[in-house]
Amino acid sequence: MSRTDLYPSRQSTEAKFLERHDPVIHSTWSKDAPLTREQHDSYDANGFLFLEGLLSEDEVASLEAESSRLRSPGAALDKETVFTELGSGDVRSIFRIHAQSELFLRLAADPRLADVARYILGEEVYLHQSRLNYKPGFRGKEFYWHSDFETWHVEDGMPRMRALSMSVLLTDNSPHNGPLMLVPGSHKRYLTCIGETPEDHYKDSLRKQEVGVPDEEGLARLVEEGGLVAPTGRAGSVVIFDCNTMHGSASNITPMPRSNAFFVFNAMSNRLEAPFGPAKPRPDFVATREKIEPLRRAPARSLAAAA
Amino acid sequence: MSRTDLYPSRQSTEAKFLERHDPVIHSTWSKDAPLTREQHDSYDANGFLFLEGLLSEDEVASLEAESSRLRSPGAALDKETVFTELGSGDVRSIFRIHAQSELFLRLAADPRLADVARYILGEEVYLHQSRLNYKPGFRGKEFYWHSDFETWHVEDGMPRMRALSMSVLLTDNSPHNGPLMLVPGSHKRYLTCIGETPEDHYKDSLRKQEVGVPDEEGLARLVEEGGLVAPTGRAGSVVIFDCNTMHGSASNITPMPRSNAFFVFNAMSNRLEAPFGPAKPRPDFVATREKIEPLRRAPARSLAAAA
């Protein structure tokens, strides 16, 4: 009674390109869509979209203040959701921010984000994962290339490619401070990874990814075909990318920290099953499995403190 | 009988900005200068200059072929001049290439490079150091911020700021593959470093710099005042920078390697004394001390293989 695994990975000593069995955009464009025709086509072709200056400066200030509060020692956070930088001990990520901060929940549910997610995924959505990333200046570590879906499928049991991520920039992204780099077009095929998944892999992989990363030959081929893009712009801009778009970021030695709020929207019909890899699924704060409910439909309203 | 140390460093637990006692350009501009007036002024103000496309594609091809030859296992190289990447074992740097490759000596002595060095330093020059850097794709490590002069002064006994570096790009530099980043204007002051120099420090510091690096506060101030520039362009371009310009580079996770030939020109009058820090000087292949002779004056001639 084995399930069909459309996207097998980490099952062989050789990496392969497999076909993608799912659409990238699960809606047909009309003039009522929350994306322009050009944005729709660009996301479909490239696997990502950069919405420059989506949030106002006042909204960014309000989110930054909330981010500082959450990263300070006094914040009442679920301990297991807080990850620190190897070496320095600085807070690198806080998970499940939508459940630990009303403001970050409002951000995720804001129609400027959530309506786009519902449009691309073609139905109601929920948050598979959320986190606040803080990459300190001077010694921000790199994050090696990976397709999120590969991990979500193998380690979390996400069955299909019907999810996307939104990275809300809370600091200005320059080419120098280790911005997110994406490989345009890489979402169209599935590059399997070699090797097996160690038990409780997430404890290390959230700091430094070593299993579930593409082989160099496959990666080189994707970059040869699609090139590399690192969207840069001011805080308040948003990068949206498909769950299978290859991405990573270099180290940050500049004095400028890089921070973002990160939300993974998954289609309600695509909720998690048993993992396709290891028997034990990752904990709920990394991959929501319990109490799945559609993200609330919120009215358009400023996120600024005074609003 | 202690010498005057104009640029003391690593002697205190506090970092300080000290005055620069030397000119940046030791010549007065005239229309016979090998730099335009704008280039002269820009180097003086910013501490670096980017000469885009200085070498032809044929010359780059010839230098690349020589670089591959030197990095291959069969090359007859002085073992102590070869440094490998931590982890992978890939060749990261080969020192003293001007003494181990006639072509790289020709490159250093080429009037397009050497005449500019003589002009900026205001007299005959010699090579304080030369090396071939190869930063592999996928796992090229970062190089933290530093002023070269600080190390050359403390560890090598270079008395004055009358030296400069030229980095000849042998691969295209994009914003993504860990290009050299410089802090404009940082050359005008001397930022002392804290801590002491361990014995035989060069063995580790050539791989990963940990002593002789600026404190975060001082670095942040320099970047606040001058910003950051990462010159990018095609192979064959040359970055020239003052011995005291703060620079570094981030990691390179892209498939594109980054390679350059690196030459340090020092004024003949500025040859090494006893180190100002540890008693034992670094070996000759890192910091030329023996048999100092002015770099030969070579005629203009293409470096391409067919030429």
From TrEMBL, chains A, B:
SUPFAM superfamilies according to UniProt: Clavaminate synthase-like
This protein's record includes keyword Nuclease: no
Source organism superkingdom: Bacteria
The protein's name: Ectoine hydroxylase
An MF annotation (GO) of this entry: 2-oxoglutarate-dependent dioxygenase activity
Signal peptide positions (record): none
Family: Belongs to the PhyH family. EctD subfamily.
